[in-house]
Amino acid sequence: MSKPQKQIHLAAHFPGVNNTTVWSDPRAGSHIDFGSFTHFARTAERAKFDFLFLAEGLRLREHAGEIYDLDVVGRPDTFTVLAALAAVTEHLGLTGTINSTFNEPYEVARQFASLDHLTEGRAAWNVVTSWDAFTGENFRRGGFLPQEERYTRAAEFLATAHELFDSWRGDEILADPATGTFLGDAKAGAFVHSGRHFDIQGRFNVPRSPQGRPVIFQAGDSDEGREFAASDADAIFSRYATLEEGQAFYADVKRRLARYGRRPEQLKILPAATFALGDTDAEAEELAREVRRQQVSGATALRHLEFVWNRDLSAYDPDGPLPDIDPLVSDGHIAEGRAQVRMYRDPLATAREWRERAAAHGWSIRDLVINTGNRQNFVGSPETIARSIDALVQADAADGFILVPHLTPGGLDAFADRVVPLLQERGVFRTEYEGPTLRHHLGLEHPDGSGAARAA
After folding, report:
1. Other C-beta atoms lying within 10 Å of the C-beta of residue 143
2. pLDDT tens-digit profile of 354-385?
3. How far is CA 107 from CA 118, 155, 165, 190, 408, in A?
4. Is the confidence at residue 172, as pLDDT, over 50?
5. For residues 299 and 19, what is the distance between their CA atoms, to the nearest angstrom?
6. Which of 53, 57, 140, 285 would be 17's cystine partner, CB 3.0–4.6 Å?
7. Confidence check: pLDDT of 53 > 50
8. Closest alpha carbon to 339 in 32, 125, 134
């Protein structure tokens, strides 16, 4: 008996706080003007995507003690943007990244419960942790948690938030779902939590929302992150968008669900993916090369090399050979304010490998960074990209993809107009939204165990 076709899940990541976007392109727009967010969200909804995703930037990034100004920095407040987008969309899920290291459960639960009401059941929370004292300085407690305890706090944070969401749960009606008017039950909203990280009690003042709880996303790739996702998340982001790596990640995370009494379909695996779309495969390949060179200027290449070398390399020619000096290994780092600092656990080994690859291919510093950095995951004509996405999902390398275009806000338009119809023709992507909530879009059960999420 043949295996039934899986339905593909698609989402859109508004590209900011990273160097994926080509902000210097004349077609690029503002990353803070609301019109950019509106255009992007309406395109995603027109294409019947599951949700829009916002990352979070809690501090301007720095490099060698100065603001890092070679890619987009900064981001308006996540909840403010998502609440505003609720008014200009009707079906699109709205997902925000909110940190569990520097926030408090009551405040975050109240904000997400409110957003779920405002959107009539379209809210989602990407639960992340933060390892660095650099960001923590904004909260007057930089470095207050050892790295190994981040997920311990995150797990208790999420459990506490769930207790708050569920404090209005009961067989009897506690509030009018249309007006929020309180209808009875002296226990409504009452909560008590006493644990290692949080000791709180009181009344939660937001009634049960349409989804019961927001959809929970998790983004960690470590063993602790995978376990955290398997225990309590509805979806996990992945950086593995190739067949072999994607299948390995998919099988590993899905396998962990059983120990928590969960089924494979209760956790969606959604890698982030970039794309270069052309009329032909050859045209798309040329566009991909152009985009990579736009993303990696000479100055950007030198800064990237400094992540590994931990030295000021500004005197080197980005179009020349790699430095012959070794990386400086120390507790401090030239790029404390950049996430890439911890990507290279063994800088001496990385430097040796890079020198060997550069020598073998005749690469300059800039060539090396271009060829070892992020690459477009999907490159080709609309037919090629649709076929590639479908093949990866059907092969259990993913349940779908979170697309990150290189242009803001119009970079998603061509994909919506040219690739989505081909996926629909294949019968693997919706032509209309089938339910009102994000849980419906993702095929997730309501937390009450009542099947798909209930309508508001």
Report:
1. 12
2. 999 999 999 999 999 999 876 778 999 999 99
3. 17, 16, 12, 15, 31
4. no
5. 13
6. 57
7. yes
8. 134
- Residues tagged in the binding site annotation: 97, 151, 222
Does the pLDDT value for residue 311 go beyond 50?
Answer: yes
Quote the tokens at residue 227: 């376990």
Instruction: Report the pLDDT value the prediction gives residue 337, as an integer from 0 to 100.
Output: 56
Q: Crossing angle for the helix pair 105-118 and 150-165, nearest 10 degrees? A: 50
Q: Give residue 365's identity as a one-letter amino acid code.
A: I
H or E stretch including 318?
Answer: none
Burial track 300-329 (b if 16+ CB lie within 10 A, e otherwise): bbbbbbbbbbbbebeebebeeebbeeebee
Return the closest-CA partner of residue 267 out of 314, 217, 308: 217
Across the range 61-68, mean pLDDT stands at 76
Average pLDDT estimate for 216-235: 90
In this structure, what token pair is assigned to residue 395? 């092969």
In whole angstroms, what is the distance from residue 121 CA to residue 127 CA? Answer: 18
For residues 264 and 124, give the distance between their C-alpha atoms in angstroms, rounded to a whole number: 20
- What residue type is 193 in one-letter code? H
- Cross-strand pairs, 379: 276
Name residues whose C-beta falls within 8 Å of residue 56's C-beta, 6 or more positions apart in sequence: 17, 75, 78, 96, 97, 98, 99, 128
Residues 51 and 95: beta-carbon distance below 8 Å = yes
- Tokens encoding 345: 């656990």
Binding site as annotated, residues for FMN: 97, 151, 222
Using 50, 70 and 90 to split pLDDT, how confident is the model at 82?
very high
Apex CA 430: angle with CA 250 and CA 112, to 5°?
70
Do residues 37 and 77 lie in contact, with contact meaning Cβ atoms separated by under 8 Å? Answer: no
User: Which residues, 6+ apart, have CB-to-CB distance to 26 below 8 Å?
Assistant: none
Confidence at residue 455, expressed as pLDDT on a 0 to 100 scale: 34
Contact indicator for 337, 290 with CB cutoff of 8 Å? no
